[in-house]
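Bench notes, afternoon.
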Amino acid sequence: MTLRVSTQMMYTQSTNYINNKLASLTDLNEQASSQKRINKPSDDAVGSATVLNLRSTLTSYDQYKENVATAQGWLSTSDATLTQVSTLLTRAKELAQEAATGSQSAENRKQISYEMRQIYEQLIALANTEYQGKSIYGGQKTDKNAFSECLWMTSNDASLSTSNSFRIEGNSDTTVLVQFVNSGASTGSSALMSACDVRYSIDGGKTFRDGSVTTNAAGEIVVSMPESGTSITFARDTQVKVNSQTNTNDTNGTWMWIRPSAVYNGDDSDDTGTTVSSSGLGTNLLGATARGSFSTNAIVRIDNKTAVTMGQQIEYSYSLDGGSTWVTGNTVAADSTSNATTLNLAAGGLLTLASNGSNVLQPGAQFLIKPNTAGVNLQISASESLQVNDVGKDIFGGIYQDPSKVLGNGGNRLTLASSNATAVFNSSSSIYTSNGGTPTKNLFETVGNLVAFLETNNQQGVSQSLDSLKLCQTQVTTALASVGGRENRASTTKTILTNLTDSVTSQLSSVEDVDLTRLLTQLSQQETAYQAVLKSSSMIMQMSLMNYI
């Protein structure tokens, strides 16, 4: 059977051949331009999926490297800061050793106190160091200074500080030395503070002025020292030991040194527990406590359609990502004998709800669980994070108490109820006793006491402060070692991430990049083929029956 080849068929076939070769040449030109073998999913479907996965991995590595760089910035700043703190403490020890010798006069110690005041101010500034506008020693409270200056009180009478709450108001650039006298009591005998007269000195004990002891509307005892610009308030039943009315150096009575210290404004990680807040109808009449393992905030929601009592079946959901996703379908079996219930959350966390006036749970009631933490952590790999900050009170000490237990706080005023609160650095750490007190690692309390004892020519107090300075410097050195260890870890992680990035980049190149030698060969072949098709097509298309008629 003979098939007639028409002119139209020849034109169509020639056009197809030209287009096919041109398309192949265009694809090769695109690869030559982009240097990529895969430019669209149709080039290699499996390879495209591999490329996307590898690029996603590279993106995560880039983010980890940015986090490592940020961590190195934080830690490097802390390293430099603590090194300066250690240098200042070395100088403070030199000054304390000099002032503790018996050959120094009151004037010599006063001169040394000027430099110690400056060291104290420098330490405050260093403790408030920031990196990119964020405090590095305030725990997670990075938006404000970790420490603020305050006045605090040291006494040779341990019971005065440890058994009574007190607050100090006002401001003074020098140590205020305070004594109590009572005409009706013998020297050293105990008496109610409200029955005593007070005298104070603002020149290191050279001269004394009369103060006043009054009772305010709340029944508290207010000790006022007008020319010092300060006052101190005690509980109404506070007792002191009476000083001699004629001997201002009487060591039998109660003395007070009102001197500088610092309040820690950050948060801590001492308590591994949690706090629970609630919202919804009736939740104020419920007691809610959390225990167990909580690594992040958790929200618990009651899902019952109607109000239920603790003894009925309770339906609830919880979220560990701020409410973006919820784990639903959780229930607690009915127990008619109980007016409390425990809800199980992920990773062993438990929320216990109990009656505090009502045992009814309303639909939609929510409970927010917040774990107590102070660390600022950055993710430096898929499986590890690195803490970049430090808790300032653990390094510098100062005056600190759980904010929920502070009775009053503001400016140069802080109330610390030592007798009924769990203060981390309570007032007992600042006690100076005539027979020598226990050294403390509380840096700001130590330096504050040292300033006070230098300004009041107290050689024995200076000696005690010297022992504390040694412990403080060890504390700072330990913190410095911790920072250095984390710096090394960040540096090692950076090297690992660089190596991983190079490896994945190599894998990506092997899948995605074009083989240039092979590409040039293919381009030459396709160019020759295209030219051949064009030439043959032009020859065929010139041939027609019309040429032979």
